[in-house]
Amino acid sequence: MSTLVDVDTDETYCQTPGPIAPAPSSGAAEGPPYAECVLCREPTEYPESTKGATLCPVCAWQEAGRTACSG
Asked: In Å, how far are 9, 13, 23, 39, 63 from 17, measured between CA atoms?
């Protein structure tokens, strides 16, 4: 024979959260002027003063995949 145990429940556990902050606008990121990606011309994480070929995170990921698989 089983006995039910009185379980203390937390009523706030199942409540829906409050409103979530809106996503930032899809415009350019705020801060210093960022360098353009040399492949797709999207803004990168690097300032314009960075020397050399700058890549955005997407193009950097794709380039890493190409070089890793090139044998």
From this structure: 18, 10, 17, 41, 40
CB atoms within 10 A of CB 35: 20
Residue whose entry in the numeric block shows the structure tokens 């797709």 = 40
CA 57 to chain CA centroid, nearest Å = 10
Q: What is the DSSP letter of 23?
A: P
Please tell me the pTM assigned to this model: 0.51
pLDDT at residue 30, as a whole number: 66
Q: How far apart are CA 38 and CA 15, in angstroms?
A: 48
Please say whether the beta carbons of 36 and 44 come within 8 A: yes
Residues 23-62 have pLDDT tens digits of 655 555 567 789 999 999 999 999 999 899 999 999 999 9
